[in-house]
Specification:
With 67 residues, this protein is an all-alpha fold. It contains five helices and no strands. The protein has one domain: Protein Yjbj, Chain: A (Orthogonal Bundle). Pfam families: CsbD (PF05532).
Length: 67
């Protein structure tokens, strides 16, 4: 997975992230700033997911994106 694509287009990707994980706030997304590890941590914090589940959910979401 090439996460650099997400980091490089973070301003455009934030909307798609918010559609998928609506409990994340704009402030959360500003702090995350495209960093996958921080995205994983915030999703775990907001949704109470386990680390493995969060990684799988992000991978699934990323795979569905049409870049």
């Amino acid at each position: 997975m090439d996460w650099n694509r997400v980091e490089g287009n973070w301003k455009q990707v934030k909307g798609k992230i918010k559609e998928q994980w609506g409990k994340l706030t704009d402030d959360d997304l500003d702090v995350i700033d495209g960093k996958r590890d921080q995205l994983e941590g915030k999703i775990q914090e907001r949704y109470g997911y386990a680390k493995d589940q969060t990684k799988k959910d992000i991978d699934d979401w990323y795979g569905r994106q049409t870049w």
